[in-house]
Write a structure and sequence with these properties.
The protein is α/β, with parallel strands linked by helices and about 180 residues long. The protein has a single domain (about 30-180), classed as Double Stranded RNA Binding Domain (2-Layer Sandwich). Helix content is about 45%, strand content about 30%. The chain has helices at about 1-25, 35-45, 75-90, 150-170, 175-180, and strands at about 25-30, 50-55, 60-65, 65-70, 100-115, 115-130, 135-145. The strands form 2 sheets. The chain has a 4-stranded mixed β-sheet. Strands 1-4-3 form a 3-stranded mixed β-sheet. It is elongated, with a radius of gyration of 21 Å.
């Protein structure tokens, strides 16, 4: 009888230990989906844009002590590079003479999981061809929440729209437009 009692008392501890161990694993961000306004912006660029190298080592952010990051231990820079590549692929513009290369260096990605307001921040140094680099920073707000599980789900859901907005901010920036027009 004592063995049954001991085993039953051990299950809650085992369950709690397993939950604690799994909580340390990073939750992968959703797969990127293309935004129509970004495809339209790339199609209307004066020259075709080829996506070059994006660098940066950041792999996770924390929302109430729960890590969020790209799948497979990838970096946010690689995720954002893939976003630009997806957008460029959908444009249907073929590589041509006179195309320009877009490169990026990730400064930071951060999530603020507040009680009332929350936000994603993405900041990168971008460069086109041999033109001087320019910095683009996007802060996209979403509703916070007192409950950690709720705000965590909202942060997870808000990531792709935040990257879509960042891509749009890059393409719509006067520095991007001037660099694309000036590159020969």
């Amino acid at each position: 009888m004592r063995d049954v009692f001991t085993r039953r008392r051990g299950w809650p501890w085992l369950t709690a230990a397993l939950a604690w161990a799994l909580a340390g694993c990073s939750v992968p961000v959703p797969v990127y989906s293309v935004a129509g306004k970004n495809v339209a912006a790339l199609r209307s660029a004066p020259r075709p844009v080829r996506v070059g190298q994006f660098t940066g080592d950041q792999q996770t952010v924390s929302c109430r002590l729960r890590p969020i990051g790209p799948e497979g231990g990838g970096t946010f820079a690689a995720y954002i590079q893939n976003a630009f590549e997806e957008e460029a692929t959908i444009t249907g513009r073929r590589p041509a003479e006179g195309e320009v290369e877009l490169r990026g260096v990730l400064r930071r990605v951060d999530v603020d999981c507040g009680i009332v307001e929350a936000s994603w921040t993405i900041e990168m140094d971008m460069s086109i061809g041999e033109q001087p680099p320019f910095t683009v920073k996007t802060v996209r707000r979403f509703d916070g929440n007192y409950l950690g599980g709720v705000v965590f789900q909202r942060a997870y859901t808000a990531f792709v729209p935040s990257v879509q907005e960042f891509v749009h901010d890059v393409l719509a920036s006067p520095a991007f437009q001037a660099a694309v027009a000036a590159t020969r």
